[in-house]
Amino acid sequence: MNKTMRLLSSAAVMAALGTAGCENMTAGENALLAAGLAGAATGIALGTTGVPASSTIPIALGAAAGAGALGYGVSKMQVNRDQRMFAEQRGQTLVAQAYERGAKNIPRYILVDTIAEKPTTGRPVMIFDTASGKVASNRLYYVNAAPGPYGFVEAPPGMLRGQ
Questions:
Q1: If we measure between CA atoms, which residue out of 38, 114, 121 comes closest to residue 72?
Q2: Is residue 117 domain-shared with residue 68, that is, in the same domain?
Q3: 112 in Cβ contact with 121 (< 8 Å)
Q4: Which residue among 43, 52, 104, 141 is least enclosed by CB atoms within 10 Å?
Q5: What residues pair up with 109 in beta bridges, in sequence order?
Q6: Mean pLDDT over residues 76-104, rounded?
Q7: Are the C-beta atoms of 62 and 38 separated by less than 8 Å?
Q8: What is the distance between the alpha carbons of residues 91 and 157, in angstroms, rounded to a whole number?
Q9: Domain end position, chosen among 13, 46, 77
Q10: Burial annotation 110-140 (CB, 10 A radius, 16+ → b, else e)
């Protein structure tokens, strides 16, 4: 019985890690999912080994808080599906329009505008790969550079190193 419960709790932890980065969920939803699964897995694992409830509950709550904070932090660094799709469509449109207007040498990586969940200072942009026609990363950047004559600017090399 104890080995089965440990296996189930391990599976719950793996599920929490696997789903903590779901792209269709907000950062808060990811945090709640990770916290719930990690707290349950820890509580089950400790409860089946005979640890008293007076110790199990605070430890499980601590595990839930830690997993929730980590899930929230990781999710905030990644973009969601809508942001990625908007940036990809915008990049494809801008590149097509630039070629129509006579542009010859479009840089391989450009910054294209996207949408931001919580606007801050600067424009929310993503790196777009003009060769593949897709976004080059799942990171969102905030820049103060104005768009160039074709509606985009070249991505600085420093941004590409962090990918």
A1: 38
A2: no
A3: no
A4: 104
A5: 129
A6: 87
A7: no
A8: 18
A9: 77
A10: bbbbbeeeeeeeebbbbbbbbeeeebbbbeb
HSE (CB half, 13 Å, CA atoms) of 106?
25
Q: Are residues 33 and 102 in the same domain?
A: no
Q: Are residues 85 and 156 in the same domain?
A: yes
Closest CA to 130 of 99, 157, 101, 100: 99
Q: Token match 């779901």: residue? A: 22
Same domain, 109 and 137: yes
Cβ neighbours around 50 below 10 Å, total: 8
For residues 128 and 114, is the Cβ–Cβ distance under 8 A? no
Q: What is the pLDDT of residue 128?
A: 93
Residues found in the chain? 163
Within 13 Å, how many C-alpha atoms sit on residue 86's CB side? Answer: 14
Place of tokens 């479009």: 106
As a whole-number percent, the residues of the chain with pLDDT over 90 amount to: 17
The pLDDT assigned to 110 comes to 92
For the segment 49-71, what is each residue's pLDDT rounded down to a tens digit?
Answer: 888 888 878 887 877 777 777 66
Residues 87/114, Cβ–Cβ less than 8 Å? yes
86 & 119 share domain: yes
